[in-house]
Amino acid sequence: MSQVEKKAGLLRRTSSSKKPLKEKVVLMYDEIFAKEDPAKNNARFWDELFLMKVNLEYLESKLESVDGEEVQRIQDNINSLFHHCVQALGEEHQIKVVNALQTLCALFRGVHQKNKSASGFDIINMLMGFDKAEQRMKDLMERLDSLLCGDGSESLKSLCLKLLLCLVTVTDNISQNTILEYVMINSIFEAILQILSDVSSRGQHGYDAVVLLALLVNYRKYESVNPYIVKLSIVDDEPTLDGMGMVVHQALTEYNRQYKDKEEENQGGFFSTLTSMVGSMFIADADEKLSVQTNEAILLALYEAVHLNRNFITVLAQSHPEIDIPTTPTTPTPTTPTTPLGTTPPSLDMMNNPELPLDPNLQTSNLLITFLKYASIVMQDTKDEHRLNSARLCLIILTCIAEDQYADAFLHDDNMNFRVNLHRMPMRHRKKAVDKNIPSRPLVCAVLDLMVEFIVTHMMKDFPMDLYLRCVQIIHKLLCYQKKCRIRLHYTWRELWSALINLLKFLLSNETTLLAKHNIFHLALLVVNLFNMFITYGDTFLPTSNSYDELYYEIVRMHQVFDNLYCMVLRVSTNTGQWKEAASKVTHALVNVRAIINHFNPKIESYAAVNHISQLSEEQVLEVVRSNYDTLTLKLQDGLDQFERYSEQPKEAAFFKELVRSISLNVRKNVSLNTLSQDVLLKEFSTIS
Amino acid sequence: TRSRSFPPPPSDQNSPCPSPSLSISSSPSLSLPSTPSSSCGPPQAVTPPLGVISEGVAELSLVIDAEVAHRACQEVLQKVKLKQLPAAPSSAAPSPPAAPALNTPVKPLKIREEDDPEGPAPGSVKSARRRQRHNPSKQSWLLRLFESKLFDVSMAISYLHNSKEPGVQAYIGNRLFSFPHEEVDFYLPQLLNMYIHMDEDVGDAIKPYVVHRCRQSISFSLQCAWLLGAYSSDMHISTQRHSRGTKLRKLILSDELKPAGPRARRDPLTLTPFCPVASPAAIGEHGLSPSKRTHQRSKSDATVSISLSSNLKRTASNPKVESSQDEPVRLAPQREFIKSLMGIGKRLATLPTKEQKTQRLVSELSLLNHKLPARVWLPTAAFDHHVVRVPHTQAVVLNSKDKAPYLIYVEVLECENFETSSVPIRIPENRIRSTRSVENLPDCGMTAEQRAGSFSTVPNYDNDDEAWSVDDIGELQVELPEIHTNSCDNISQFSVDSITSLESKEPIFIAAGDIRRRLSEQLAQAPTTFKRDPEDPSAVALKEPWEEKVRRIREGSPYGHLPYWRLLSVIVKCGDDLRQELLAFQVLQQLKSIWEQERVPLWIKPYKILVLSSDSGMIEPVVNAVSLHQVKKQSQLSLLDYFLQEHGTPTTEAFLSAQRNFVQSCAGYSLICYLLQVKDRHNGNILLDAEGHIIHIDFGFILSSSPKNLGFETSAFKLTTEFVDVMGGSDGDMFNYYKMLMLQGLIAARKHMDRVLQIVEIMQQGTQLPCFHGSSTMRGLKERFHMSLTEEQLQLLVDQLVDGSMRSLTTKLYDGFQYLTNGIM
């Protein structure tokens, strides 16, 4: 009760200045929360109610304050309110529709707020009444559907989506939101698709639509049949899929742009101080360093599209010019991911614009490139949980991509060369390559670069084992594709080899601390097997004969790491302990690497001795390698070119559950109906009606 | 005396033709002056089959013009006859009834010339012309000629150009109707240039024919509009605005020249007998059906299966229903298509690097793809088709300093008639793999049981018969190779592979040396592809054998499985004047047919040119050919060594035939270069095809113009020692063969000199083209045919030319100059 008073106090301060004066609408709400049927005395009660400006706070707090027994008493009236709300959605009078939508929002929220622990059935009963629930929800969904697809006001559509987002995120765990069962039966999937396929509606509502879809797909994903999953997986309409990709593309681009702006801001110098002065006028939180809030919701949408819909893969490679037009600095709300999209005027939409803007500086881009750039930013810092999740999701998406034949085909397409500027973490031992002239290469090079970059930058105490495993597996999948299709990628494999060797070195030197938490042998095995891929199948995918020599050179040069690794795994595998099995696998995997080292080391030493050279040059070593291949025998290992396909269940289910929960919370926080202030709507509709 | 016997005022052209004219379907080709009563009589009632049969040729009779043409025709001839009667009454009267032959007037001419000594020899044609010019009283000869089988388009054009007599001009204007379209089309640039720049009488004589053809054909309309624009461009701007050419162009582009009469083009009665067995509809419909089907399937899946409750019928709400029932938009789609291609070229030119240009090109084309298929086509193609897709990643930017010409590949579906066949329905880019979307459903976190469950609640989803119709199986087959590789991931022909059977515990050993050896072997063995060079992106694309490219693109295309799928390519030039190229093409084509006719085995390859305006156009690329520059830069070999590398040792069949091709093409192009004075012959402008032929490209400097007029390249043609080496040295048999071919070629060309001269001469009118700079262009050209020399003297001339070119210092100098300035090897 005290809480209510507090809220009421707040309310009064903000909305009405004088204490005794109650708004008419508040009085009417009070009537609803009385025992009597409010229409009994006033036949036009409901009509009038929806003409009043909604007082969300009051209505919500009122609902929250109702306690157990009271519920029974007023349930009829609440059911009635719900019913009339749904009916009002069909009204021609747009004000009524707006008010009804907002009232529904308040109803859903208020009832859930009050009954956090209550079962879904009780909530349904309280809102709609059991016997009528099905009909009510069907009506509601149909009305929403026709509002979303009709030619009505864009603000109304936006409000409909907000209501749906509100409904979907009303519980922390989406799967416990029993009302969604009706949303499953009465699908609004088609409406979402229509929004995405149409250029102008996509510009305005695309973001909400995509997030809504991503959330709906996650409703009881693992327990029951979710029609949204089925439907999403068979969408093959190009404009719609493109539209979906475009929304994700724009959201990620916006993130990348914000990040870049902040980065430049922080770099100091005369120019940057100037811009930061200007910049601080718009960005409220100036000391919020380089942490633009990540956007897992959009990333989840991308994941679901890539994972569920094979057709979506083509969208990844669809080229667009980079949308790098500074968005009009509107309100200082960098933390709400809902805003950036609304600010992009639909005229910038490339699908709409048959001819691309004529700007020579405009780099050509596509969703995949934007995604890779985004991933490179997110992966830089995996310390906080959001970013860790984001990075993990990025790697999962890349895993799905690397497994897809079609995606692999365009990743390796020699005709599709791009310059991808990945973000690199500034580190002590290397200068930040500002304008390192990256050549234009097939996209897979950028993926490999990203993986290498991750490997070399995350060798830390708090070792992200899971991310490393995914990373190495992605590389493996790409190699398998190259081997199978005999694609000789001109890539500087040396960088990858030395990154992998350094990783092994790190595992060795932190053995004890890491073993407390992780199975480092599994990772070591994967890394060694990558080398085995190169050693035994190098003939099928290496770009030049020299590159095979270089591989040997690198192994021989770093032989100490392999020697130490062998000693370590041999030691662990001879002891009895939980790692015995895992370690012995690594010993077997090392057989060829050791053969190479044992074969060439003596040869190199004798060459040095014979020629009286203390330090052999690289060219000399390569010469020794080249002339001594024939006496070396290698063992063919099993299953090097096979991998386990990604599957979400059961391995990743827990991760996604948690992720969806956090996204739900975030979306709920950001869906404030105030974003669409009623004043705007009133202005809009006063001219219409 | 002006005989204004002729044609209806232009305003009449626009008015729809009265339907009665429909019945006169006997073609004007029958309406020879000799049989005036039969052809020009009252409209005969024609039985339907006749009307149908004659449609192809006689559609022209549907327009007023034809009728008028008849009348005018006779009037003119009557006049001529009357005039001549006193002079030579006997010769004019018995004109042979040449009616049946007129539909194919050219062939008989050819045969006649060689086989029939009694028939009027070409010499007499010439003499007739001379007589006509100098002695008007001998016009009876002229009349006889006009009525004879020999009278072909080439002569008609020539008389149209040279005759000062309006009656003759008008007559020829009418005679145009009786020639096959393709033959007249070859002279379209000449016709239109005369229309623009010559006096009113000639214009009036030509116009009815042009208007008539425009009504019939969209592509002819556009072709005319483009050429009219291009050839009017050199006029002074004030005169240009009101010129005849501009007016006609406007009329055509206003799209008012529709097929006359209300007759629907897709009238089944007129269409069906036209096509042999497979009706045109079959082609079109076949192209459509798979997408239609599958489209419906996806629709039904989504709607039927899930929205159990509501009446949301909006799944496929995207408005992509083909509105083929509507009045077909005639010129607009094609014009838009061309416009966007040109727009791309213009925008590319603003980008600084090749790489940026290429990227931009790819993304621009991918946007263009969204608007395809449409009723658009490549005018350079030889068959009717609709463009369905541009495989955008295959496009390349060509080497050019400041312009941005680019090469695109275009997927088309062949059709009966691009104007009437329905446009194929779009198959989404992802269609090629759509079926897998269903297969992979279990991946989405459902167990098999749940999946089974899902089908019971979601009926009609997978076990629907419709869903697995024939079309889908076709699609599956497209994917088959992929599935195949998927399932047997571990099969490898080259490496001993890991076999994952747990039973075989026997370790397999391999030698490291073998792996290394295989690697270098495979790298060496790989077909000589060119290395990717960001500065020369087109080299790789052009080196790939055409067949292979077609296969590769077909595999990756959602339309690839359709039986009428074809791949075309075209070079889009923006900012370049292709009028000279077109002129060169015509001359080359003419010489080619002369040499064919005279059975001289010279080889040249005229490539088609489409002039869109005075600064834009399209070129049909020569497939399977790369420039000598690219060859030398990439292979780092001499030309002979490159031949040996590509074709084998000097004694092999393959090498010998490549060498023969080389010699025959060298001889052909040497003559071309000499006759047309083709300059700027650096190695970037000479292509070498996979069979050993050389092909000269870029005729930007011909006749009177040479690059920067530096006076380099004084030799007759380019004949480097490298060329001679490939021929087997200057004292070898093949070299003698080369010289002999040149002599034969020159003799043959000389014999038909007028056919070549005429093409050039007409185009000289009203032009500012650099190749006509100065007054002596025509004289010079004529002189190079050396009419006065005996064959022995000609042989001497050829020897001189060859020796001169071989020893030419300027050729070497020019190559060096090109290397220094443009980096061309």
Automatic annotation (TrEMBL), chain A:
SMART domains: DUF1741. Keywords: Membrane, Transmembrane, Transmembrane helix. The keyword Glycoprotein does not apply. InterPro entries: ARM-type_fold, ARMD3-like, ARMH3_C. Residues 435-671 form the Armadillo-like helical domain. Transmembrane segments: none annotated. It comes from the Eukaryota. Its main location: membrane. GO terms for cellular component: cytosol; membrane. It is found in: Membrane. PANTHER family: ARMADILLO-LIKE HELICAL DOMAIN-CONTAINING PROTEIN 3. This is Armadillo like helical domain containing 3. It comes from Dicentrarchus labrax (European seabass).
UniProtKB/TrEMBL annotation, chain B:
Its EC number is 2.7.1.67. This is Phosphatidylinositol 4-kinase beta. Residues 12-43 have a biased composition (Low complexity). PANTHER family: PHOSPHATIDYLINOSITOL 4-KINASE BETA, PHOSPHATIDYLINOSITOL KINASE. It comes from Dicentrarchus labrax. One of its GO terms (cellular component) is mitochondrial outer membrane. Residues 1-11 have a biased composition (Pro residues). It is a peripheral membrane protein. Residues 544-810 form the PI3K/PI4K catalytic domain. Residues 301-322 have a biased composition (Polar residues). The keyword Thylakoid does not apply. Residues 50-254 form the PIK helical domain. GO terms for biological process: phosphatidylinositol phosphate biosynthetic process; phosphatidylinositol-mediated signaling. SUPFAM superfamilies: Protein kinase-like (PK-like). Residues 1-50, 111-136, 282-328 are annotated as: Disordered. InterPro entries: Kinase-like_dom_sf, PI3/4_kinase, PI3/4_kinase_cat_dom, PI3/4_kinase_cat_sf, PI3/4_kinase_CS, PI3K_accessory_dom, PI4-kinase_beta/PIK1_cat, PI4KB-PIK1_PIK. The keyword Cell cycle does not apply. It is found in: Mitochondrion outer membrane; Rough endoplasmic reticulum membrane. The lineage of its organism: Eukaryota, Metazoa, Chordata, Craniata, Vertebrata. Residues 127-136 have a biased composition (Basic residues). Belongs to the PI3/PI4-kinase family. Type III PI4K subfamily. Keywords: ATP-binding, Endoplasmic reticulum, Kinase, Lipid metabolism, Membrane, Mitochondrion, Mitochondrion outer membrane, Nucleotide-binding, Transferase. It catalyses: a 1,2-diacyl-sn-glycero-3-phospho-(1D-myo-inositol) + ATP = a 1,2-diacyl-sn-glycero-3-phospho-(1D-myo-inositol 4-phosphate) + ADP + H(+). One of its GO terms (molecular function) is ATP binding. It comes from the Eukaryota. Its cofactor is Mg(2+); Mn(2+).
